[in-house]
Design goal:
eight-stranded antiparallel beta sheet; 27% strand; alpha+beta
């Protein structure tokens, strides 16, 4: 039976893949049929520069290839598709877009890509590699002359545009954009090919300090930085939706770097608060202006910050990042050759900034405290005239964020409708924040069907909230959910599929249900409107970790607290967690070959099985997981999924590779994560793991259901799990801690003031707000719940730093007051000491730098927690009994102090 199931699932997967491939091939065939206008038949010119080999099309002088000298086989541009993409409207590196008007006129758009014709070459020199007047490929009525230059300046490749007002009138340039066309088209390639041939790029939209990171998917160097050279403040990052290259799961799309964006802010983006103030340029008759970008090689991802300093770019370092809870005393370090002349805070009362000195290497140090919930922007003006913006997100204290979130889930999202025909009562169901209504119907049936990431998100988040902030009233509701909905409705409780998890409990089958069950307002004429048979299919492995995580959480609450859980024993919950884990491999074998989002929960379950001396079950689970890890070990890039490329399997692949000692695969996985999870002085992009298609599958249907870079989708906090695990193994690598903590706090940054958790935040400048649907956010909150922790470390230049706490120093003692919601995990980097609690909370940790002594202060007991259970990664021989590998510490009505 299992072989037949696997065979049928494989056929279904192959069928979907074939259909997708055929659709893509049909699309490319249609593009290929169009007239070639770029002029590639007239040949190319190639130039050798100190860092690159540059190849341009003779007729258009657009870039045909950009190869780093250290690896001439690699091309940063989509040159492999040039013979297909050589048509009108398809952007190339070297194009330019503008919107111009006379002072009392209307905006008019111009683009060198719209209707291509051969350009007019201009004279070259030793420093000017190629030059052209672009008039031929622009409309006759354009009031400016545009000349483009590829040149060498200080041994670096520069792309420069000279714009001259040729009219007799003063004009305003309200939009100027340089398309950033690099090779992020993954279509038609396997994982080995994409990781070796393709790139992703991330923008720091920070005005004169802004830049674009262009990184290979493998995380290996060389990588590319695009930097402002002259008058190219990075004001906005506009998606090029008019490029006909089809956006899909294999193509995120192109964007353009904009130094001026006022014309869009007044039209397509009206009413939307932008990352930076939209501006324009006034150009008088005969006046000219140059706009230039430079291209710089950086060998590794971790060398990007050093390269920026070498290139004399303003560099900012935020600790713990740029998502700032209101009870955290954050820090900001500025590294730039010119002094600060002014700092503007918007809104004025959003945060406070106080200069508190310099580091030994001259970085200016500030204390930052958030005061007002919401987005905030610092605009730093340096004495040499350059400006830098840093975008912050101020949130409530983490304890309050999580409390509000749990309340919202178990009230507004609590579904308790008698006689629901789909067996969803009671549960935490999906929610539409725009309409302020529960989502009880959706053509993507899983959204209303309590399964898949997009439907299980609500109840999974509610469960995981209890792990770090248990609430008896909420747990009582969740027990009802377990007894009546999870066990027996979402998950089979008997029969041949026992322990299997359904794809959805909601389905579309109008002939078998009473009239009025389905609304006429919902279009069920889609592939996603599964009928009863398909909804009941247990073959989708991605549904199993949600269920396993719920049982595991309830086990922990029942085992390490008293009276919180009373519907089932801890044994029952651990058994169900184990059986669900095994069922995934046995009943969903095809997709189980891939890394799962939240797959790290299986390792947590395994560890608890071992702690409970359930050796037979532990051995079986470990063997099943090792078989999967052995398969990953055989692959060069073991992060496959149902998607051609994905960013969620890496979490589990890393954790099992690390567990079984497959260090090479753990490193490969970590490097891939680093390639799509950047460090930037911007809350939205700092630690933001790449995902760009789940607004289609887990976001609100309608105009915002599109391919779009998602801001802190669940991938951010999931990928923070391996990042912070790796940091604890390499505590001298601050980069890992910074990017991991950016993803961790990014995972809760979008929760609203009243506690709603959205699928993600929209990055398009026409939107810049949360998605309205709760969707698949629960997977991200899992990442926060199992990974939230406090870190104490010391950097050679920045000094003592705290992530997840407030630091104070007195003599040789460094003290941290924990500010996380869980307050149950602390890592002291100088001692490589990892302290975790199964129950109880830590108020403060003090480290004596002279004696090495550590003192932890535990909070008093509460009604459900008479004892703390402390785990330490070193043998301390504390004077407490050990139970299941943890020190059992009796708590009292007062704080408990432990020294070692």
């Amino acid at each position: 039976m299992m072989k037949e199931l696997k065979y049928s699932i494989t056929l279904l997967f192959l069928l979907v893949t074939i259909l997708k491939t055929e659709a893509q091939n049909t699309y490319w065939s249609e593009i290929e049929k169009k007239e070639s206008t770029l002029g590639i038949s007239q040949g190319f010119e190639t130039f050798n520069t100190p860092q690159f080999q540059l190849k341009i099309v003779k007729a258009s002088q657009t870039v045909a290839a950009l190869n780093p000298n250290s690896n001439l086989d690699f091309d940063f541009t989509p040159g492999d598709r040039l013979k297909i993409r050589d048509k009108d409207d398809l952007y190339q590196l070297g194009d330019i877009n503008l919107r111009i008007k006379e002072l009392n006129g209307d905006w008019k758009s111009y683009s060198t890509a719209a209707k291509r014709k051969a350009i007019t070459p201009l004279p070259t020199s030793k420093t000017i590699l190629a030059a052209a007047d672009l008039a031929n490929t622009l409309p006759n009525d354009i009031p400016v002359t545009i000349k483009r230059y590829y040149e060498i300046d200080n041994n670096q490749l520069v792309l420069r545009f000279e714009i001259i007002n040729k009219s007799a009138n003063t004009i305003e340039i309200g939009a100027l954009g340089i398309p950033m066309v690099f090779n992020n088209i993954l279509e038609g390639k396997n994982l080995d090919q994409t990781h070796e041939q393709n790139v992703f790029f991330d923008p720091y939209i920070g005005l004169d300090a802004g830049y674009l990171e262009v990184k290979r998917l493998s995380g290996k160097g060389p990588n590319l930085l695009v930097l402002p050279q002259e008058n190219m403040s990075f004001e906005a990052y506009r998606p090029l939706l008019d490029d006909p290259t089809r956006r899909s799961i294999v193509f995120e799309g192109y964007h353009e770097w904009m130094p001026f964006s006022k014309a869009y802010a007044e039209n397509e983006w009206t009413g939307v608060k932008q990352w930076n103030k939209p501006t324009s340029l006034i150009l008088k008759p005969k006046e000219s202006k140059n706009f230039a970008l430079k291209f710089v090689i950086t060998e590794g991802i971790k060398t990007i910050q050093n390269t920026l300093v070498e290139e004399e770019q303003p560099v900012a370092i935020g600790i713990p990042g740029y998502v700032i809870p209101k009870d955290v005393k954050a820090q900001l370090f500025l590294n730039y050759k010119s002094k600060v002349s002014n700092i503007e805070i918007e809104p004025k009362d959003a945060l406070t900034l106080k200069k508190i000195g310099k580091t030994n290497n001259g970085l200016i140090k500030y204390k930052v405290e958030g005061k007002k919930w919401g987005r905030a922007r610092l605009t730093i003006t340096y004495k040499n005239g350059k400006k830098q913006t840093i975008n912050y997100k101020i949130i409530k204290p983490e304890t309050e964020v999580v409390k509000d979130f749990g309340h919202f889930l178990t009230t507004e999202q609590w579904f308790d409708v008698p006689n629901d025909p789909f067996g969803r009562t009671p549960s935490v169901i999906s929610y539409d924040y725009e309409t302020k209504k529960q989502v009880r119907e959706d053509s993507r049936v899983w959204i209303a069907g309590l399964s898949d990431e997009g439907g299980a998100g609500g109840w999974l988040a509610a469960m995981m909230k209890q792990l770090i902030q248990p609430d008896r009233k909420e747990i009582k509701k969740l027990q009802e959910f377990v007894d009546n909905t999870l066990w027996g409705s979402i998950q089979y409780k008997e029969g041949k599929h026992k322990y299997g998890v359904k794809k959805s409990v909601f389905y579309y089958e109008p002939d078998s249900l009473p009239k009025g069950t389905y609304s006429k307002d919902v279009n069920y004429n889609t592939w996603a409107a599964w009928d009863h048979k398909h909804a009941n299919d247990p073959g989708r492995s991605y549904n199993y970790p949600h269920v396993a995580a719920a049982y595991w959480t309830m086990y922990r609450l029942a085992r390490y607290h008293e009276g919180l859980v009373d519907n089932k024993s801890w044994e029952w919950y651990l058994k169900l967690a184990y059986e669900t884990s095994i069922a995934m491999v046995e009943q969903a074998p095809f997709y189980a070959e891939f890394g799962q989002m939240e797959g790290s929960v299986f390792l947590l379950i395994l560890k608890d099985l071992k702690n409970e001396n359930q050796t037979e079950q532990a051995a079986n689970l470990e063997a099943k997981m090792k078989a999967r890890a052995d398969h990953w070990k055989s692959l060069n890039y073991p992060f496959g999924s149902e998607m051609p490329w994905d960013s969620t399997g890496q979490e589990e692949v890393y954790m099992w590779s690390d567990y079984f000692g497959y260090n090479d695969k753990a490193d490969v996985t970590l490097n891939a994560i680093l390639a799509y999870m950047p460090i930037m002085p911007h809350w939205a992009y700092n630690g933001n793991a790449r995902r760009y298609w789940d607004f289609l599958y887990g976001g609100k249907a309608g105009r915002t259901s599109r391919v779009e870079r998602q801001i802190h989708h669940y991938g951010s906090s999931l990928n923070a799990i391996p990042m912070l695990r790796q940091y604890r193994k390499h505590a001298d690598d601050l980069y890992l801690l910074r990017v991991g903590y950016g993803g961790l706090l990014g995972g809760i940054s979008n929760i609203t003031q009243d506690g709603f958790g959205p699928a993600a935040f929209h990055s398009f400048p026409s939107t810049l707000k949360n998605d309205a649907l709760s969707g698949d956010y629960g997977s991200g909150f899992y990442g926060y719940a199992v990974n939230t922790s406090t870190y104490l470390t010391k950097d050679k230049d920045l000094g003592w730093l705290a992530f997840g706490g407030n630091l104070s120093k007195k003599g040789s003692c460094v003290k941290v007051e924990l500010t996380t919601a869980a307050k149950s995990r602390v890592f002291i980097a100088p001692k490589q000491l990892w302290l975790t609690l199964d129950a109880g909370t830590i108020k403060t940790v003090t480290y004596n730098t002279k004696t090495g002594e550590v003192e932890i202060t535990l909070s008093p007991k509460d009604a459900y927690t008479p004892d703390a259970y402390l785990r330490v990664n070193k043998d301390l021989n504390l004077q407490y009994s050990k139970i299941r590998g943890a020190y059992k510490i009796p708590l009292s009505s007062k704080q408990t102090v432990i020294k070692f």
